[in-house]
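Thread: magnesium ion complex, take 2
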Amino acid sequence: MGKIIAITNQKGGVGKTTTSINLACGLALEGKKVLLMDVDSQYNASSGVGYKISNATKSVYHMFIENLKYEDVIKVDVKKNLDLIPSTSNLSTLDFVLGEKKEQYKNVLKEDITKLKSDYDFVIIDCPPSLGIINICVLEIADSVIIPIQAEHYALHGVVQLLKTIKSIKSTRNTKLQIEGVLVTMYDNRTKLCRDVYEEIKRTFGNKTYEALIPRSIKIAEAPMVGESIYEYDKSNKAAKAYAEFTREVLKQNGK
Ligand SMILES: Nc1ncnc2c1ncn2[C@@H]1O[C@H](COP(=O)(O)OP(=O)(O)OP(=O)(O)O)[C@@H](O)[C@H]1O
Ligand SMILES: [Mg+2]
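Output below.
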């Protein structure tokens, strides 16, 4: 049975999409069968693995609106061992479109999930920077969450709200939900601020904090523009090595 890991933090620009792409591609390179699910209307994860969104693209939005199933929206083999559920910009309207019907639509994502889990070793979900309906639905179907945190001032602000939401979902609708781990991104060990933030994160999350620290690198920002993971774009880059180390930690943690 595969594992569903949501990459989430309602704070914007902390490295969720970058982490989703490079964890999904890293696991695929390690020979695992991976599904990358993009539920952010900015669809950066979809384009980041080289998939071109068009007007005809179907996403999780259409699963809600047109009663499509997972198999109708999955794009197979976007890379070796990697399938994709792309996103579309209209996903941002979902909270508004559903209105009062929110609750009944939540089940749409849950319905086929057992089959999805049996087809893949890992399902990696790139979440939007909000705690709207789609993010809540994802937390209700996920086995665990990875929280990327940018090493900066007030890094943990907002994470408190996320932890409260996780706790509440865990105690009601998804008792299996775990925190898989916390990943520090855009780390620069030359600055005291980054080192202090890392210590604070370790004090808060203990051994849930990944040893791998993702450094800042311009290559990380360039790679998605050509639809490549950091391993394809510049394998010897320090961020590529850090994301590979992080991928191995995730595998080890899951006994794989
Ligand atoms: N390690 C890094 N080094 C340099 N730039 C990075 C790094 N990680 C991410 N970035 C850049 O920072 C920006 C934000 O990253 P990313 O899109 O992954 O964050 P996000 O949390 O998904 O953002 P959003 O909340 O908007 O979805 C992007 O331009 C990305 O290329
Ligand atoms: Mg993103």
